Amino acid sequence: MDISIRIGGEAGQGIQSISSIFARTFVRQDFYVFINQDFASRIRGGHNFDQVRISNAPVRATVDRVHILIALDKETTNRDIGCLTEGGVLLFDRDAIDFTSDDPNHLSIPFSKIASEVGKSKIMINSVAIGAVIALTDFELQPVLACIEEQFQQKGSDVLENNLRSATAGYEFVRRNLKIIPFFKVPSAKTVRRKMTLTGSQAMALGAMASGLKFYSGYPMSPATSIMEFVASQAERYNIIVEQAEDEIAAINMVIGANFAGARAMTATSGGGFCLMVEALSLAGMTETPAVIIVGQRPGPSTGLPTRTEQGDLNFVMHAGHGDFPRAVLAPGYPEQAAYLMSKAFNLADKYQIPVIVLSDQHFNDSYFTVDKLDFQDIVIDRGRILSDQDLPLPHEYNRYAAGDSGISPRILPGLTKAVLYADSDEHTTAGHITESAAIRNQMMRKRMQKIKGIQQEIGPPEIYPGGQAELALLGWGSTYSVIREAVDQLNQNGNFAQMIHYSEIFPFNPEHVATEALSKIRIIAIENNYTGQFADYFSMATGLPIDQRILKYDGRPFTPAEIINQIKDAP
Amino acid sequence: MMDVHSRLLKSSTRSKMPLRRITMVTLEDFNSDDPIAWCPGCGNFSILKALRQALVEIQQQPHELVIVSGIGQAPKTPHYLRCNCFNGLHGRTLPVATGIKLANHKLTVLAQGGDGDGYGEGGNHFLHAMRRNINITYLVHNNQIYGLTKGQASPTSDAGFVTKTTPQGSINPACNPLLLAIASDCSFVARGFAGEIDHLAGLIKAGIQHKGFALIDIFQPCVSFNRVNTFKWYSDRVYKVDADSPYDTKDRLNAFQKAQEWGDKIPIGIIYRHQRPTLEEQIPAIADQPLVAQQTDPKVFTELLEIFK
Questions:
Q1: With an 8 Å Cβ cutoff, are A417 and B63 in contact?
Q2: CA A309 to mean position of chain CA atoms
Q3: Which terminus of chain B, N or C, has less C-beta within 10 A?
């Protein structure tokens, strides 16, 4: 069973409230749900949709064809009717939308009339639509009513009753008036409250909090704002300070200050905000102050497509900042990994006293994933070497930038020892004082850059799926994990043809992870949500391996498995 | 070896009990061995002297003091003191200082920079730090010129001021930081003069002891590049607001008037002061102990996952 439902309409019509009720209902019945949110940069109006995919097997990519299309506005019937799969059903309201059809699969439901009469308000249209879909999929009504009850119980008994009645009326209307028998069906299931539904943003925020995040500062920017909002919603419960900064420059400088004083701190932004942070990124590199920055990509250049997705900032984050200094770049592929990578980001930042960038994108941040299991048992908090008074026989002689193992100088935290420290953005002596000495400059550059070797050893290998031999490697990174994996599964239905090579720990590159000789014998196809194939260039440069084909998408929308497969030359 | 968190905890408990200290803090405790790189006769020497004097008067432990500075001549100051120093970016002192103070509010946090740093590059942060009323003290060495970059107009240069970047004289009027501060409801607004060291030390002491954001704008003659606003120029003009009659620092309208005085007579002293809640005392997360002393157990977050089921 693998059914997709698209709910299209204007911003403000409650698309998300419909999709979130579906997600909760079906996940509680032990199905897997994936929601792709496609919305324009406006609060009211425009054309938006949520696409809900429901399956009894794990699904984490969006598809081209849908089984049910709910049109809450005329634009949806204009634009999206072509997305309906053969035998799929369109639900619309003839009273509200100027659309006529004698196709029996195009079912007009008087959403508005039912909502006004049964639900006593036009706002109840969403509940009528929910009930209608449940009837179409031949599923029981009770589980969805239970979720509606949970959603609305705090809004008073009238609101709750009206929603329940509207959903029931929508359900009954379809039962009475449907002239066809849909080929798709959701089998009945038991209610099991086991799985979770969460977004990529929430997964990253959870991972950060469980890794000891104590201070968050940020400036709102799509698609990173949801990270700040989630941390803020839990800040009081877990003693975290969230400070909304006046701009991104302030945000990252506050994060550097908090880390300097010893609290784990991070910020999140998108490409444009990260542009403003770059001077301070270099500051973190020079002063050797830990900092964690999530960059949720959206299509650029400049304001670009503010609410849409792209992987176009990889080159930027790998090279941002004036001067040479060490850093790490991580890019989660799925929520469970994101939680773990946040912990790795903080540990690398503290241990090597460097900035660490976690690179995600709008598709990852805003999509809802079904997660079977997530726990924080394995998260280890490694703050790196921090000295106390006992470690400092001569506190007056503490040198912040003393030569240490692998270029790492043990830190002290201000006020927590009797010693003092000097940190400086100017080139500095081991004591942290400003210097112009050529010899010390050389010594300090080597000390800082030496850390790259250690970081490189900690970078994990790419995920190869499935193992064994293949004729074709699909090379990807970050949020395209699930869609590439699904494409590989489809390509391999008749034997081992394709293999995914997915990178989530990107920079610094460790060439030891690449089986260069084996890969030189097969075709490598890079799959990226950007114009040039930024990772492909990086991979090719680091390994010497040519990239045989690039499948690139830069229209602001995520890939579907079919889009990838259709572009592969000589696919089986 | 004790784990980091128990050390942090122990240390933060210690810092709550200053009475236990036996030795007095003296001027020598603030000695630094970093050689000073200012021009001979620079106003910064007097400001450094006043700052040391104030720190001894309030018995500030050097290791519990953090000075965040920007880029310019003034931001070199913390190197010439024994203290914790973070010399960061031009204009970004206040966000770094805010992060430090919120991470460990037991520390005494000062920010230090020049007029270009604070009122030019860092103007936005200046406004918002005052709005937050975070308990830090901000010393702005105001010489009405860019010194480090060798003599260009600054945001506080007077109209008509001739520099290499304004050869016909500056067209723009000078920004008035005190007026900006009073308008932003800054809870402590003062002006000092490098030529009045004891008076300045008193202002710095009052600023650090004030609970909330304290701005101290300090006239700091630049002997190399500003031939107009010299020691003599300032000495001839400055007068102490409370020299002849009592001055009500709480009266905001009066403060607006006082802050507009410029020309033959320029007031120095505390221009405006009132109490309002500080940022950090309104944050429940640090009501019991500073962030740096708090430990995280990753496992407790498993319970939070219930909201997603």
A1: yes
A2: 10
A3: N
